[in-house]
Amino acid sequence: MRIMGNTIEAGGAMPPATVKVWDPLVRIFHWSLVATFVIAYATGDEIERVHVAAGYTIAGLLAIRIVWGFIGPRHARFSNFVRPPREVLAYLRDVAMLRAPRYIGHNPAGGAMIVAMLVALAGTCATGYMMTTDAYWGSKLIEHVHEFLANLTVGLVVAHVLGVLIASFEHRENLIASMISGRKRAAD
Fold first, then answer.
1. Which of 30, 45, 106, 107 maximizes the CB count within 10 A of its CB?
2. Can you tell me where the transmembrane regions are (predicted)?
């Protein structure tokens, strides 16, 4: 075994090259959103102050991520991963047949999931805020919509995690680690 620069060569094999994909803002947003959503969902009506603070934090995170989706680096931009429904469905068909192409950034299904989660979370935040206003204080309809959107988000999170696990398996790549390190394998 030889050490060459920052790589270790064992038996003539070089470790796979990696590329920077997820910038620090995307990674911090992702894991902060995970933590604050868990806090908001777990506290619900039980610890209202914490629930409201987590909700406002989520709203702030969403605002930052939406702006970053237009001005951030390549893989953070919506234009890089938001695809037409036809492409998303074709990609999901390819996933089911275990022949989906690998993407360095988000795949079409991942892009659709991001949009769905952003919309569901924005709606959850909006209805949560509405319940604090005089116009909607005590509104059962707004409360039910708020709870529906929060539960829908949980379902989307479950689908997201399953998608990440399937893609990790199919492409032999740890996508969770890449959302921590910001790096992915460069090429197949």
1. 107
2. 24-44, 50-71, 109-129, 149-169
